[in-house]
Amino acid sequence: MKLIRYGQPGAERPGLLDASGTLRDLSMLLPDIGPAQLNPRTLSALAAIDASRLPPVYGSPRLGSPVGGVGKIVCVGLNYADHAREAGLQPPAEPVLFMKAVTALSGPHDDVRIPAGAVKTDWEVELGIVIGTRARNVAKAQALDHVAGYVLANDVSERAWQMERGGQWDKGKSHDTFAPIGPWLVTADEVGDPHAIDLWLEVNGRRVQNGSTRNFIFDVPTVVSYISEFMTLEPGDVILTGTPAGVGLGQKPAPWFLKPGDVMRLGATGLGEQVQKCVGG
Fold first, then answer.
1. Phi and psi of 200, rounded to 5°?
2. CA 86 → CA 61, 155, 223, distances in Å?
């Protein structure tokens, strides 16, 4: 299934995309798509519904984050060897973890706001994991049992704040609009193998990132299991799994970064596409 939340910020309604690509309203069945709706029983019940009998949604409503009530966003850094190399760093021996504020979440086509004083705002196309059931110190062999589905994500980053202002990376990762996800939450059964997903990103029509989750250093079961050793993962939590090479920081012959007026377009196999215009923040 492809689950959607649509409507104005703070007033999103639940929906799903049917086999014909029509958006259908789910609000008569569910109050939202969030932690309480991501368990296997609810997802199985939704999958059994004849979607053609649900009310269609006409027009082109705004799409919000396809997951509501997200408790935390946990990110994995340097999870592709080519990205580690372009950043001038060695591939890590263990997953590198950092957090992104939930207030950074935005819809897949919302504007990205470049904050005042930012000089190195960067793009990062990523696969996002959405947790469906609580995971605490889970074994790698059982890790996928806790995954509700996957999303396309853009881990927007202000590199100067991330790397030149001291402390942790979080301060360069958490500005409002720095975590667009969607357009859909694609359930795990429909995705199948999360290690066979191609990802790409363009800036102003120029393709700058081409990658594949086949090239993860740490695969999805490893990432979920590893994070659950250090913190409990709750339903609705989102894990961003890292980005392939091609970010602004790694551009040759010299880095270049986003500015107001730039447009990012990104996509991933089976997970849809996003388009974001950069505006002053």
1. -150, 160
2. 39, 17, 22
